[in-house]
Amino acid sequence: MSTRSILYEKIYDHLKQQITDGHFQPGDLLPTEQELMSQFRVSRMTTNRALQLLTNEGLIVRKAGIGTFVAQSESLLPLSAEDNPFQSSAFDSILSTEITRGITQIGFVIPFLDQSFGPALLAEVERQLHAEPFVLNVGCSYGSQQVEQEIIDRLVSSGVQGLIVMPVNGEYYNPAILKLHVEQFPIVLVDKQLSGIPVSYITTDNTLAARTLTEHLLALDHSSIAYFSPDWQGTSTLADRRKGFEEAIANAKDDSLTIIDVPVVTWEKMIDHFDERQLDIVTNTLVDHPKITAVFATDDKLADYWLEAARRLNIRVPEDFSIVCFDGPLPKPPHFSMTCALQDQEFMAKEAVRIVLQQLRDTQPYTPEMIIVPASIHIGNSTSRCHHG
Asked: Which residues contact 64 (CB under 8 A, 6 or more apart)?
């Protein structure tokens, strides 16, 4: 049995003995993982294994954001050889691997499963963890911060040892993420960062990509451009895309440029189907502002609204109207693809797995990593030179 396995067993035996001896009574708060890590000089992964086994035996209850408590049980029996799972050859065999089945879970929280950005990243995360091997536990927040918080709490309560989170858009930080940061729980954010909060994150260079897309429209002589985005206040990804857009406009030094901000009013409900109220807003914008010849949409699902509105108004894309966006390179019938910024999902996934596993395995305080990944620009057939004027 490896040294790590012996340490794992030592923590398990120590806590179980204290519970069965009555040192800890039902309802008592146990030492935190950080305290156990310091006491036994082990990694979070090792302490988490011991705690998860005690949870599986019904001896303790782990409450996300609160702590670990002795279960309210009337049958806490003294520890015996028969009760000790480490005394079986089967368990020795399991522990001969790096990690133990059933407690080696990594959680992944994703906003949507049907967008072009996210599912490919999720698939690569699963491939990376399978090679470790870890079990991936996935939860979908459907763009809701409340659901995101519930998913995070559920995953942590179920015993995941680390989390990879793609935060939803929102003006405020999710308190569930902040709690995990305070507790030093292994976590890495993908696609967004929490400004001022030292949590590891991996994101695209959204400012540069947005500036490049906007410069592409300007090079095609578009001077009246719509900007279509959810509220970017408090959402780093959207704020950076707006920053890049504005930088390109400012660098053009052209007073004749006209920018029309078009509100996104029902973003959470726009994923599975067109929201008619939102579609009416886009359609009316094209009718009320006939000089608009292009739109910058902050993702491909939003860009689809402009495609549909243009179709209904018999406006040709790209001959009469150009569209740029983030993500969405897959061809649409007939052989149509968006001009867009493509995010390197494979690299981001590999880095996310590396960071969260490093946090699990380190016994010393972990220094957060901030990784910014370049995007690639795909020139599709949704843009062409402006012929208005």
From this structure: 152, 153, 154, 156, 157, 176, 179
- Work out the mean pLDDT of the chain and round it to a whole number: 84
| Residue 327 φ/ψ region, left for φ over 0, alpha for ψ in the -120 to 50 degree band, beta for the rest | left
Distance between CA atoms of residues 14 and 50, nearest Å: 10
The model's pTM is 0.75
> Which H or E run includes 337?
none
Nearest CA to 157 among 210, 105, 79?
105
Structure tokens at 348: 């981001």
For residue 334, whether the previous peptide bond is cis, meaning omega lies within 30 degrees of 0, is yes
Residues forming a β-bridge with 300:
none
Q: Which helix (H) or strand (E) holds 240?
A: helix 236-252
Of residues 196, 190, 191, the one with CA closest to residue 178: 196
| β pairing state of 339-342 and 376-378 | antiparallel
Please give the domain boundaries of the chain with CATH numbers for all domains. 3-95 (1.10.10.10), 105-203+345-373 (3.40.50.2300), 206-343 (3.40.50.2300)
Q: What is the pLDDT of residues 6-51, one digit of tens each?
A: 677 888 899 999 998 889 998 889 998 888 888 888 877 678 778 8
Label residue 213 exposed, middle or buried (CB < 10 Å: 0-12, 13-18, 19+). Answer: buried
pLDDT tens digits along 360-375: 887 666 789 999 999 9
